[in-house]
Amino acid sequence: MKMLLAIALGGALGALARHKVGSVAMHWLGSGFPYGTLTVNIAGSFLLGLLAGGLAFRFSLPLEARAFLMVGFCGAFTTFSTFALDFATLTERGNLMLAGFYVAVSVAGAILAMFGGLAIMRTLFA
C-alpha cells in the first residue's frame, strides 16, 4: 500500500509540475508549437537520467522513494500521449515539416538529455 501511495503522490506532483511548465511555456512562447510538451519531455528525461545515475553510482533510497520519484513524478511530468497528440495536431493542420521537426527534436533531445543526466552522475560519483 505504501508503494501505491508513493507513486500516486509523485504522480500528482509530477502532473502539477507538467501543467505549470506547459502554462509558462505557452505564456512566454505562444501556442503555435508544443514548447511545453517538448520542455517537460526533455527536462523529465534529464531528471530521470540524474536519478538513475545517482542511484546507480552513489545514492540509495527506499523502494517507495524511488517509485515516488521515478515512476510517479517523472512518469507524470513527462508525457508521451500529449507528444503524440501534438504531432497529430501539427500534421492535421498541414504543418508536416514542423511535425517532423517536433518528433526529431523531442526524441533526440529526450535521449540526449537522459544520457547527459547519466554522464553527469557518472562523472561525479563513479
Automatic annotation (TrEMBL):
Subcellular localization, as worded in the UniProt entry: Cell membrane
Binding sites annotated in the UniProt record for Na(+): 75, 78
Pfam families, per database record: CRCB
GO terms assigned for molecular function: fluoride channel activity; metal ion binding
Summary of the function given for this chain in its UniProt record: Fluoride-specific ion channel. Important for reducing fluoride concentration in the cell, thus reducing its toxicity.
Entry keyword set: Cell inner membrane, Cell membrane, Ion channel, Ion transport, Membrane, Metal-binding, Sodium, Transmembrane, Transmembrane helix, Transport
Any GO BP: cellular detoxification of fluoride
Reaction catalysed by this enzyme: fluoride(in) = fluoride(out)
Regulation affecting activity: Na(+) is not transported, but it plays an essential structural role and its presence is essential for fluoride channel function.
PANTHER family membership: FLUORIDE EXPORT PROTEIN 1-RELATED (PTHR28259)
GO CC annotation: plasma membrane
Location, primary (coarse class): membrane
Transmembrane segments: 33-55, 67-90, 96-120
Gene it is expressed from: crcB
Membrane topology per record: Multi-pass membrane protein
Family: Belongs to the fluoride channel Fluc/FEX (TC 1.A.43) family.
Protein name stated in the entry: Fluoride-specific ion channel FluC
Superkingdom, taxonomy of origin: Bacteria
